[in-house]
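Human:
Class, as today's exercise, you are to examine the entry below, and be ready to discuss the fold:
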Amino acid sequence: MKIIIAIFIFSVIILFHELGHFLFAKKCNVKVNEFSLGLGPNLISWGKGETKYCIKLFPFGGACVMEGEDEESDNDRAFNKKTVWERFQIVFAGPFFNFIMAFVLSVIYIGLIGADLPYIGDVIEGYAAEEAGLEAGDKIIKMDNYNVHFYNEVRLYTTFHSGKTIDVTYERDNQRYKASLVPKYSEENNAYLIGITSTGELTKLSLLKTLEYGFYEVKYQIYITGQSLKMLFTGQLSVNDMSGPVGIVDTFSTVYDQSVVDGYFYVFINFLSLTILLSANLGVMNLLPFPALDGGRIFLLAIEAIRGKKMKAEIENGINLVGFALLMGLMVFVMFNDITKLIH
């Protein structure tokens, strides 16, 4: 059952992404030939109008197939006949819908349990925070130029800037102070620490504050994804550290096993948290300027807007085809790695 739930959640995230493309295609009067969930051969298909709706064999991925998207078409409602601005809206709508989904779920998540505001619960002896005079009850406001809204951001920012001096702005008795902290490596925790702990308390917020912190949660998830990508490109992480659909489903399964002992409410909350992360992650990943991704298409649209004329269809299609092949190769590699990890 937990695997089915995990696959269902993953499918909903992808479906919502494709729904963004679909709705904006309709808004811009583009003919949609097929709207599908999954990859591979059709299991079920229906639709008497211009659009065929399909559920495919493998529940990973999806598509909104538009007339004239990857080939030339003389149809007045073809994707390739629309203006740069209309095509941009359609392409950008997929990632944008992922961010909308992440925001809505973040509001529900924070509304149910509250927010872990960045107040210091305790200061650990022998670390930079103690030496700089930080105290329990202080509130972390900024780390360098990064605005902090959740305690987890303190921990993650320190992790992503291990060994570097961090300029911390904190608040005490409505007064703001600054301190330069150098994280110190902890063998016990196998991480760099500035020497503070959380209060461990979640704060309930008003409706307006919950909406505000919903945006902060999405920003936080985007930050995690961005920093992880940066570590991947700089060699601090490798492709072996990446997870695909199999790894994601396994993560949901593990979270279920760890949460169910405390009750199904905690299963729901932790699944909600994972779904927020995945939806924001999918939005960011799709905006990367790589061929076949939405970001790659946006990049080509930007070039078209600057040049004032379209790129030759065969060149653009060739770029996207090569990009798609590379993405499929990466997906197979990551899936193989996920399966290998499960076996071992």
Q: What stands out?
A: Residues 313-343 form the longest helix (31 residues). The beta strands are 32-46, 52-66, 120-123, 139-143, 146-147, 166-172, 175-181, 184-186, 191-193, 196-198.
